[in-house]
Amino acid sequence: MLDEIYGIILDICDSRCVLCNKTYDCFHEIVPKSRRRNWHTVDNTVCICAECHEKVHRNGTVNSAEKLRSILYEKIHTSGIYDRIPREMFFDVVSNGEAEFFSS
User: Fold this and answer.
1) Is 103 among the domain residues?
2) Within 10 A of 73 (CB to CB), how many other CB atoms are there?
3) Which ranges of 1-104 would DSSP assign to H, the alpha helix?
4) pLDDT in tens, 30-81
5) Residue span of the structural domain in which 67 resides
């Protein structure tokens, strides 16, 4: 399932860094696996370049996580791919059976 999630994230982010729009170098988990049991989800992963990845980790704050999540949610909703993503790939569904954020 991880390869499928990464493929969806590449489509959503157009293989570009969500912060600077350069070609992506890696995937970044918005909430790290050390703090979240179900971290392999579409709504917790973004494409990011090496430079921005270093900045996020060096200056990692709640604000950077909120900014990344906001950018990702916007991309998910505007990409036209949302309705094609299996619900079990979203954290809210994995956690409690409901897609709380995405139900609006």
Assistant:
1) no
2) 14
3) 2-13, 50-58, 62-78, 91-96
4) 887 776 666 678 888 999 999 999 988 887 665 688 889 899 989 888 887 7
5) 2-90
